[in-house]
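To assess whether ligand presence alters the predicted conformation, the chain was also submitted together with heme C. Input:
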Amino acid sequence: MIKRLIVGLSISAACFGASIDNGANLFDGTKSFENGAVACVACHNVNSSAVISGGTLAMDLTSMGGAMEYPLSAVENMSSPVMQEAYKGKPLTKEEIADLDAFVMDAANNPGSAGGDNFVMMGVAGAVIAFIILSLLGNGRKKESVNQELYDRQQVNQTQSSQWRDA
Ligand code: HEC
């Protein structure tokens, strides 16, 4: 019984040990890496509203969750010479790698996560409400449009010119 509890606790610790938020902060440089490495956002993008848009030098990492641990574990394991150069002598810690991985995996599973969708919906709702208020205010202030005025004037001109023609 106690054994099962301990196993359960350690499994949940493994699952929740890595911090998505911390990964996001490391990714976009809000938080510095322990060994002073440059933030990933300089070259990579991840599709998540938790971070600012990233660079386009290298591929979008959104779908890389879970597959980043190996290349990030050591400079020799990075396939890109550009990355090797950037991270030479500034290794990422195990925790940093796990957090980055957790963040990227979360971003892949929840596109536009961290309230991004709500933010857009709030904007749309605000625009609709503003539109309704403005049209209510506009109503009754002017019965005829400017176009109507121009149209009427043109009608008169046409009548006049046809009168001249007939004369
Ligand atoms: C100086 C630019 C630069 C920085 C900073 C950078 N990368 Fe990269 N990364 C690259 C390039 C270039 C590639 C090669 C792939 C490509 O051409 O898109 C790459 C490839 C990768 C790959 C593919 C795996 C592999 O090695 O083949 C992963 C995963 C990755 N980067 C993760 C990261 C993470 C996480 C960070 C931050 C800790 C980071 N990168 C920072 C430039 C960079």
